[in-house]
Amino acid sequence: MRGCRVIGCSRGHADWSAEGYEHVVADVSREKAVLDLLTHVRAKYGRLDYTVNNAGIASMNHSLLVPATTVDRILSVNVRGTFLVCRESAKLMQRRKWGRIVNISTIAVPMRIEGEALYAASKGAVETLTRVLAREYARFGITVNAVGPSPVDTGMIRSVPKNRIDQLLRSLPINRMGTPADVCNVIDFFLRKESDAVTGQVLYLGGA
Amino acid sequence: MKLSVQDCEGLIQEAYLLFLPQGSSGASISADTRLFGGDSILDSTALVSLLIEIEQQLNDTHHVEIVIADDRAMSQKRSPFRTIGSLAEYLAVLVAEKSEHS
Questions:
Q1: CATH number of the domain that A111 lies in?
Q2: What is the pLDDT of residues B46-87, one digit of tens each?
Q3: Contact check, Cβ <8 Å, B67/A35
Q4: Residue B101 CB: number of other CB atoms within 10 A?
Q5: CB of A31 within 8 Å of any CB in chain B?
Q6: Which end of chain A is more exposed for a tag (fewer CB within 10 A), N or C?
Q7: Which residue of A has its CA nearest to B43?
Q8: Which of A8, A43, A42 lies closest to A26 in space, CA to CA?
């Protein structure tokens, strides 16, 4: 999607800038931070057309070695954060009876990847949220969909051993690493105005 | 920032008018007007939109950031969303508490 004004957020300040991009410091797992973020968007721009929920954290480890605090942290960002941003985005979008929300899932959900129990479970919850919110928000003209990328070379998988990634890729029909462009392609499709009959869908990349 | 119950009632009544079904008159709106159940003329979507509108009006005009459907509201035996009057009372409490904490 080109030509949009983009407001992004993360827990820290951005060490880069781009034309048309505004960075806001916000932890999406905190309700107050999400309220402040959307209040800012409403006050400054008066509208919100698209939301992409891509904040997420993971902890790749055998489930027998996962501490409870890690469980809380993953669920807090991936599930609570996604829910709060969806809820507050929809409140703003419903004013104009139009909006698009895209959540980020993962192929770890359908592939049941060992070592990613909590991450996959949290994204499974994101997929269910996507499907239920799609029904609830349809009456406000808002679609809600999700994309499940194959492994993309980001900080999130940097700690995963290469042989594990290779093994995963070999099990996929499209056995190359995913790219940001692959993900953008699907997001663009969900955001298109012509996609107003597409909602509650989860689209996996790589053939998972 | 403090808002009286009457202030809140006025704000709710104003917002309520935006969500009346076509052909309905706002002439008989009062504190006793039902928001859901009973003889309410709002459907569930209109009620949700009404609550969001009130949150946004509070934010726009009084710079108060609240979530009306909070844990306390949802767990009360008698829902504060029954009537315009009960919602106004709840809203006044929320705004007062918010002011104390900010």
A1: 3.40.50.720
A2: 999 999 999 999 999 999 999 999 999 988 889 999 999 999
A3: yes
A4: 6
A5: yes
A6: N
A7: A139
A8: A8
Q: Looking at the domain assignment, is residue A7 inside a domain? A: no
* C-alpha–C-alpha distance, residues A195 and A53, integer Å: 18
Q: Which domain holds residue A173?
A: 49-204
Residue A10, in any domain of the structure: no
Flag whether A11 is in a domain: no
**CA of A158 vs chain B CAs: smallest distance (Å):** 38
A16 HSE (CA, 13 A, CB side): 4
**Residues of A with CB below 8 A from B45's CB?**
139-140
Distance CA A126, CA B11 (A): 36
Block residue for tokens 């999607």: A1
Q: Which residues of chain A have pLDDT under 70?
A: none
Domain count, chain A: 1
Mean pLDDT of B9-27: 90
Write the ipTM: 0.82
- Name the 3-class secondary structure at B23: coil
> A144 CB contacts (<8 Å, ≥6 apart)?
A86, A101, A102, A103, A130, A133, A134, A137, A199, A200
Q: How far is it, in rounded angstroms, from Cα A54 to Cα A47?
A: 20
